[in-house]
Amino acid sequence: MAELVNGTAEENPNMGQGLLKRLLHNPHQDKLDQYLERQSEEPTLQPLCPVEAGGFEWPSFCYQTSFAAAELTNGQFLAGTARTELVGCTVLAVVSAGAVYICHFWEDIHYAPGGYLRGAYGFQPVLNMIRGEGNTTYTAGPALNRSLFTGPDDHTRAFIMTPRNRSTVNDELSQQYPAEYKSLVELLQRVVPGIGITKYNYNPEREDDDPNAGVNKEKPFWKGVALFEYDRNADGKQHPDWRIWLGQTSFRGSNLGLQVA
């Protein structure tokens, strides 16, 4: 499958009128922030940035479930970064017709060469966690289960939300960590042959990094947020579907041709 660069929103937030009866409806553009904030603060949301997991504090973390086994609340399963704003970290979501494997990788411990409060362990432990072998220091979570993503009808796609180069933040094609991105894509292509790749390079600057931002300018909630939604009755007609938000850009499984289970 071809790689999508940044991608285009699979649904136009302005097209929400008339769809409000849907359980996985399209929020209006002026309501997008409220929607993402509300979903991200649901108490049943699976957090991607846990305080403790695997014996580590604030580790890089992965969560995996089939939709059949997912714990649903009001018919939904949610996973996301919640209120942890992405300002240099990376989010990976591997999604098929029947399962999701979703991760958050901390910049300071697995990307940056040093200079942060915590030690830097390199990117190899992240790759090792995904493939289930070798040193996985400061990571927590399962290896990617190939059986959930390599079936003939799975049509698996990976979404990678990673920071732009800080010296060229207006260039949507630039990346702060191109070598790590390349090694991640190569691993995913080996583990899940034929996987599609969608990359979303986000601006990692905080709102207060801008000297012209002004003290009263409030950062929109969607900035630096990743959210995955699965709904067993997404259209009100008992049809399941999933959607992933990378900032204000979203992709829906059914729009990508998947028969979501």
**Helix amount:** 10-25%
Radius of gyration: 18 Å
Largest sheet, described in full?
A: 7 strands, mixed
* SSE order: EHEEEEEEEHHEEHEEEE
Give the number of domains: 1
Describe the structure.
With 261 residues, this protein is of the alpha/beta class. It has one domain. Helices cover 13% and strands 25% of the residues. The protein has four helices and 14 strands. The strands form three sheets. Strands 1-11-10-7-8-5-9 form a seven-stranded mixed β-sheet. The protein has a five-stranded mixed β-sheet with strand order 2-6-12-13-14, covered by helices on one side. A hairpin with a 2-residue loop joins strand 13 and strand 14. It starts with a strand and ends in a 9-residue tail after the last strand.
Give a brief rundown of this model.
The chain has 261 residues and is of the alpha/beta class. Helix content is 13%, strand content 25%.
Layout of secondary structure:
Blueprint: E1 3-5, H1 32-40, E2 46-47, E3 52-53, E4 56-57, E5 60-66, E6 76-80, E7 90-95, E8 99-105, H2 107-110, H3 124-131, E9 139-140, E10 157-163, H4 178-191, E11 196-202, E12 226-231, E13 241-246, E14 249-252
Parallel strand pairs: 1-11, 2-6, 5-9, 10-11
Antiparallel strand pairs: 3-4, 5-8, 6-12, 7-8, 7-10, 12-13, 13-14
